[in-house]
Amino acid sequence: MDENNLEAKVSLDNEFGLHARPAAILAKEAQKFSSDIRLLLDGREVDAKSILDILTLAATSGSVLIIRARGDDAPAAVKRIKQIISARFEAKR
Amino acid sequence: MARKALKGIPVSAGIAIGKTYFLDMGGNTSTVRMDIDKGHIHEERNRLKKAFSLALTDLENIRKKIPPELKEQSTIIDSHIMILKDRKFQKSARDYIRSRMINAEWALEYAVSDIEEVFSRIEDEYIRERIQDVRLVADRVRKQLHGQPADKGSMTQRMILLASDLSPADTIELQLDKIMAFATMSGGKTSHAGIIARSLQIPAIVGVEGLSELQGGQFVILDGFNGKIIVDPEEDELSHYTELKYQFAEYQSLVNRNCYLPAETIDGYRIRVAANIELFEEVTAVLDRGGEGIGLYRTEYSYLNRENLPGEEELFEEYRDLASIAYPHKVVIRTLDLGADKIATQLGPFREANPALGLRAIRFCRKYPELFKTQLRAILRASAQGNVSIMFPMVSGLQELREVKKIYFSVRDELKAENIDYDPAMPMGIMIELPSAVLTSDLLAREVDFFSIGTNDLIQYSLGIDRTNKHVSYLYQPLHPAILRSIKMIIDAGHEAGIEVSLCGEVAADPYCVPILMGMKIDSISLNPQAIPGIKRIIRQTTMDECMELLKRVLESNDIQDSNRLVTEMIFTRFPEELMFYTSLVED
């Protein structure tokens, strides 16, 4: 498997799903990485660095998201995004 | 150009004749499409880029200034910052400049409508509504493009202002002396725009259909009595309205001449007529118009349109000066009624699904006790230097009142321990504006020194209607039996407990409603300063007997139409000369 092309599954457990605040937190974190980061849900794919893209995913609580990253810091990126979602966006901001 | 007439809801009496000025409140009313040539594409793209980055700096500065106790609000600003930094959004707008060869403003419109389209397909209502945030962010960029901020200050001569809506915060930025009248698209009979207009004594109409089709610089007549705007009027209309304007000015001067006489009925029943004000500067207007003190001092304005919260010293000086100018008259200071539609702009857009049912007034203060205590200290200190009363808004029941009193008394103890002067006998009262407070008014009356009935909110909460929504504002009926019974219940409960009952809503300035309040033996009323002379004149010309008789008949009728007819009849037979110049909350 390519170290720089990774995928991870994570389930969204916060109360209201990917609404404005979590989307802002996600996009902000994603922008810290140079890799291209995508979020996938039900065959749709969006740019994790774009808050508007994330919002249009309209992921509700209980959805299972796939994080896909491609680039030099892909492993760190996937790890961090997964961690934030798992921690219900309540970890350090 | 052809004559055209638009209809709206009259909220402030008077006639204005002049040119229109269309205020761009960030809405798309003044965004125009312009084609650009190839040579300007680069320049236009840079202009948009710069606007985005200026808007970002702006937001980041706002973010920094949010006071620590309101950090929650900063998450909304955070998401706005992320939208502004969204590369796709920015790129899409900039690409439109090149592909369509259009100006930056219009390209931004295109980019926003693309996003709107995508969002409109989202099922989750909450997320779909986030399009509002995108629009707010786009507004910020648009303002930067226009040369910031939105040009509220560029009127050169006195104009008739047209706007989508006017909030109290907006008016702070306006050059009020340049406005001879205004009309707004949204709003109902008691929206804030009307309150503002009446306090400025300029005619105003709200909820005007088709207002967006008007342009700046058109010649119009604005009829604040009947809620009409006539564009490019005929010769005879012009002379009719010029005459009416003149007559109204004469009537006003007649009424003002006798404003110092007491509000005492022919048969000797006297009430106190005080004023509702929001700006310190209005005090002189109150005294000039025969107002007997301040029945409601709204304290929100010191918290609006600024970058930090006011400190104790600043508030103390404001309240002290107010109390000493009004002395020996009484000044009732209402603690912060912030929230809902009066949010301080430095807190950012404060989103709640139901602001009127959300974190506002006394609830807001209890959530931010430090902010509340600062104000309490300032009011208490001012009480040592004038005739001051304190009043808490939006109290919903006994339990809540006791919690608030606990905070209040702990602040008094603090001052005492610090050897700081205050008046330990300062009257403490509450606004009765929630149905729950009405029904428990007998219990609440034992805990306070006075009641003040806030009819604007009481009607809104009792009848379940948003007073600024023009689709339901027709249901805003002060003479609804539920409202009349509520007011009577409050007054009776107050008097039973031996406390004074005042009324400070719009109803107090409505000639159709005042005789009924008199019949219920209200102790005092508080209204906008401008209406004081006219209302005092009506009171002086009535008798308590006829007011009580009217009340009896109205309470017996179980039909609003009937009640409305009864009061209209009385006013019509007793004060025919007043009728022409009054706009009433009562439908006829």
What does this molecule look like?
Chain A has three helices and four strands. Chain A has 93 residues and is α+β, with helices and mostly antiparallel strands. Chain A has one domain: 2-Layer Sandwich (Histidine-containing Protein, Chain: A), CATH 3.30.1340. Chain A is globular, with a radius of gyration of 12 Å. In chain A, 41% of the residues are buried. The mean pLDDT of chain A is 87. The radius of gyration of chain B is 25 Å and the shape is globular. About 1% of the residues of chain B have low confidence.
Task: Name the features.
heterodimer, A: 93 residues, alpha+beta, Histidine-containing Protein, Chain: A, four-stranded antiparallel sheet, 3 helices, 4 strands, 26% strand, globular, B: 588 residues, alpha/beta, Glucose Oxidase, domain 1, Enzyme I, Chain A, domain 2, TIM Barrel, 3 domains, eight-stranded mixed sheet, eight-stranded parallel β-barrel, 16 strands, 46% helix, 13% strand
Mean pLDDT of chain A: 87
Helix fraction of chain A, binned, reads 25-40%
Number of helices of chain A: 3
How many helical elements of chain B? Answer: 23
CATH homologous superfamily caption of chain A: HPr-like
Termini separation of chain A: 31 Å
Q: Residue-averaged pLDDT of chain B, rounded?
A: 86
CATH topology of the largest domain in chain B: TIM Barrel
Summarize the structure.
The complex is a heterodimer of chains A (93) and B (588). With 93 residues, chain A is α+β, with helices and mostly antiparallel strands.
Summarize the topology.
The complex is a heterodimer of chains A (93) and B (588).
Chain A: E1 5-11, H1 20-30, E2 36-41, E3 44-47, H2 51-57, E4 64-70, H3 74-86
Antiparallel strand pairs in A: 1-4, 2-3, 2-4
Chain B: E1 4-7, E2 9-12, E3 15-22, H1 41-65, H2 71-85, H3 87-100, H4 104-120, H5 125-128, H6 131-145, E4 159-163, H7 168-173, E5 179-184, H8 192-200, E6 204-206, E7 219-223, E8 228-231, H9 235-257, E9 272-277, H10 283-288, E10 294-298, H11 312-326, E11 331-334, H12 361-367, H13 369-383, E12 388-392, H14 398-417, E13 428-432, H15 435-439, H16 441-445, E14 450-453, H17 455-463, H18 481-496, E15 500-503, H19 514-519, E16 524-527, H20 532-540, H21 544-556, H22 560-574, H23 576-579
Parallel strand pairs in B: 3-4, 4-5, 5-6, 9-10, 9-16, 10-11, 11-12, 12-13, 13-14, 14-15, 15-16
Antiparallel strand pairs in B: 1-8, 2-6, 3-7, 7-8
